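U., I forgot to send this yesterday:
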Amino acid sequence: MPTLLALDVSPRGDRSISRALGKHFVEHWQARNPGGTVIYRDLNASRIPYMDNDLIAGVYAPPDVERTPEMQMTLRSQPN
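Result:
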């Protein structure tokens, strides 16, 4: 029987494009391998304390988008 190791690594959760693509791939793979086994690992389940959605969104926010108070607080708390 085939086995697929599915890894999620993005800290963006439901907003992650890579997680959505991975989920789509797993569903497609399962349809083609109905007897197969999927082993799922979320490498972001144990959060890195300094890296979360507010930090990522704040760092990559376009200049014309106002950062939320949470983004601003997270960015201020980062070591230089």
